[in-house]
Design goal:
seven-stranded mixed sheet; Tumour Suppressor Smad4; mainly beta; 23 strands; about 0% helix
């Protein structure tokens, strides 16, 4: 499982429909809170004045809760200090952050992954997923019956731009995502109260996916397939 390298991570912030703008996590770290003197100031009463900070220790990033009122969670688990790994989902107040790192040759800024709440993406360079995989829809309402996973983070939901698009009036905007790192794919739950199932077992955090795994999410039954290198796929 890859850890951060010497290159600085980036925070891509998008709040209340504003234009996304990146913030670099310098060697001195990044503070997050409601007060204006934070590196990332969030105008939200559920966020403490000095809520959390991300620090870099040698080549590894950590997030630390600064004794905030409402706490900081990583992958739906409340933490005081946590070593960040690729695709960790951080929750602060009403806001989610996704920490991403990928050794991709073309250094591109990430696109924000929107959720039911505001989203902040913490990322290093990323590009298309190197390993090919696809998801087949066995039952449920989606806009297609087969999806090729080409992004580092593939959102499952009804929102525009979701990689696996759910249909229907009550379909959640984003319920989970499938991410690729190190040639492996992982399913991450985005709504702890509505966790997906993998092979019938509840998944509340990050679940590594294996070829043929059955995923149940928001009334949709999916089958995950990891394809051999060089195999052609169609969507």
């Amino acid at each position: 499982m890859g850890l951060s390298t010497a290159a600085h991570a980036t925070v891509l912030v998008k709040l209340d429909g504003q234009t996304a703008h990146p913030l670099e996590i310098a060697d001195g770290g990044l503070t997050i809170g409601r007060r204006s003197d934070n590196d990332l100031s969030v105008d939200d009463h559920t966020v403490s004045a000095y809520h959390a900070r991300i620090v870099k220790v040698q080549s590894v990033y950590f997030i630390e809760d600064l004794k905030s009122t409402n706490g900081t969670s990583v992958n739906s688990r409340r933490i005081t200090r946590h070593q960040l790994r690729d695709t960790d989902v951080i929750t602060i107040g009403k806001h989610r952050m996704i920490f991403q790192e990928a050794a991709i040759a073309n250094h591109l800024l990430p696109q924000p992954v929107s959720t039911d709440e505001h989203t902040i993406v913490i990322s290093k360079t990323q590009g298309a997923a190197a390993t090919k995989a696809k998801v087949l829809v066995n039952s449920g309402k989606t806009d297609r019956r087969e999806y090729v996973l080409t992004r580092p983070v593939n959102v499952i939901g009804s929102e525009n731009g979701a990689s696996i698009r759910l249909m229907g009036w009550f379909a959640p905007k984003s319920i989970a995502h499938i991410s690729c790192r190190g040639g492996r794919y992982y399913l991450t739950a985005l709504q702890p109260k509505k966790p997906p199932l993998v092979n019938g077992a509840v998944t509340t955090a990050v679940q590594r996916l294996e070829n043929g795994d059955q995923i149940e999410v928001a009334g949709i039954l999916l089958t995950f397939y990891s394809l051999p290198s060089g195999e052609e796929v169609t969507a």
